[in-house]
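Continuing the batch. This is chain 6 of the set; chains 1 through 5 are on the previous pages. Same settings as before, nothing changed between runs. Recording input and output for traceability.
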Amino acid sequence: MEEKAFFTNDAIVLGILMIILAFVFITSTSEKRGWQIFYRYFPPVLACYFFPAIFNSFGIISGEASNLYFVSTRYLLPACLVLLCISIDLKGIINLGPKSLIMFFAATGGIVVGGPIAIIIVSTFAPDLVGGEGSDAVWRGLATVAGSWIGGGANQAAMKEIYGASEDLFASMLLVDIIVGNIWLGFLLYGATISGKIDNWLKADSSAIDDLKNKVENYRASISKMPTLKDTMLVLAAGFGATALAHWGSDLITPFMEQYEDTLRELKLTSLASGFFWLVVLATTIGLFFSFTPVKKLEGVGASRIGSVFIYVLVASIGMKMNIFEIFDNLGLFAIGIIWMLIHVSVLLITAKLVKAPFFFVAVGSQANVGGAASAPVVAAAFSPALAPVGILMAVMGYALGTYGAIVCATLMQTVAP
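Output for chain 6:
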């Protein structure tokens, strides 16, 4: 039986998370040498993610019992997507060239081949770990992880239905999915702070990314002014008004799509029956629409700054879901997940080295698959808030391809499973 957290009131939990975020921002800008050394090796974004994980791991707060992650992903995330897309430069994103797509598909390919290779490797020294019969066959559970790591939660649920993994197996795989994925997210957040060194090793040209970042930042500087209360209210109205519109659209579209659930399942397009999928798509679309209207001028009074606040709250709520000690509860399954993730990473780095792709494309391409819309913009914003829309658009692609890639992966895993 799981022990109850010390603080279960979400008002208290939110206060703790905000204090953690404030503490990180205060200390990370401190001129004291000790803090400067600490954040040189432990970047602020990673701290915002890792400190809540420590609080969760020691039972001070509970990510599982709290509703803050749900609130962050359903309310703050769509508002954040809108506010970060307001100043988007679509032409600049197009000018990023084909390497962004190459790395996205390399990330997908790394997950597709990583699953069966991980099974083959583990079966050589622990065949029982990747065995099982009927609904408890481990490959069926791993198929749900593939759905999550290529697409998202809707794709994961679809894989459970398609391959019939047992409830107990599915629960274990959820831990593998969350913890291994979050460990990799931590590495990506750290990598964003040393991307220049990694780009030198990859011999990559990041000039197109720098041009996009500079162009967006210069535009923001050119229209920047001290915001009044009215300006801030307009920013919040744009963000949460668009969120309301996206929720309304999702509430209309999702039941309509659910009428054709059997057809969508046959076409492997179950994501189209997911309310969260439509919420992300509609919020992103509204943000893109705003970028062609006078609403774009809200960037001058801090639209992206407020959107960045929402992102950091989201980072903290994601971190709050990670329990460091659970890694040791079932090391066998985590061994499979870690080997799988290492193969994914190896494919990414080899591809990046061959095509000389910047680490930004590696990180965002990976997280658009593994983390989806909840964390791909977080990783992109770790490089620069101006680049967050790139993560958003890539994550939407991940949703579209998730079920197809997961089915290929599951078929391969079934073939090689002992």
